[in-house]
Amino acid sequence: MASLPLQDRVAIVTGSSRGIGREIALHLASLGARLVINYTSNANQADSVAAEINNNQTTPRAITVRADVSDPDGVKSLFDSAEKTFNSPVHILVNSAGVLDAEYPTIANTSVESFDRIINVNARGAFLCAKEAANRLKRGGGGRIILLTSSQVAALKPGFGAYTASKAAVEAMTKILAKELKGTGITANCVAPGPIATEMFFHGKTEETVKKTEEESPFGRIGETKEISPVVGFLATDSAEWVNGQIIRVNGGYV
Predict the structure, then answer these.
(1) In this predicted model, what pLDDT tens digit does every residue of 122-138 receive, in sequence order?
(2) How far apart are CA 46 and CA 114, in angstroms?
(3) Which of 39, 104, 163, 254 does the annotation list as catalytic?
(4) Where do the Ketoreductase domain residues begin and end (predicted)?
């Protein structure tokens, strides 16, 4: 029986207790990966994801680790826990943790506190995760850094100033990182979803705003988490070795 494309490879997925991160974790597990499910606040949701992966398994294939991606020690703990539990180097990092301001303020009305929080989690968090991964992922093949950004970087919609700036910074870092990792066999790419039906997307939006967003899509709808995870899954496999330093926008033609 042929082995799965990610058979026994170790993957860390940040922000994977819900939304896009949850779907990515479940998909990577279906490809054979062993998972670190990261969360910051809701242990029950994280435990639920791990339980779904570990169901009918003789040995656990998923663990949960609480960590704040904007904290260097927290990010280090994700890798330490993975290596200790699975007795293996980490092969794949997917950084899906992210926040935005659900008030959708203009730049003129964005508070310094909100700006700092968004930059701290989205840009600093991605930097810390990528930095740790660049130093600790398996060398010589199979090493994958996949950072979630946003199609807002291309759409440049009002109300997303700080959020878009934070994700644009991640895209710039990723392109440079891919070149700096020359000789390691590790690839670095971004997946940039458009509007996706998650709790974060709907929070703070009126029905009118949601309807308008649906109408902007050539498909006339909001995307689903299951439409993002296969792209991440592909990038995590050996088949994607020649895809490096790229920003892949997955948005149904939204932009």
Answers:
(1) 999 999 999 999 999 99
(2) 26
(3) 163
(4) 9-194
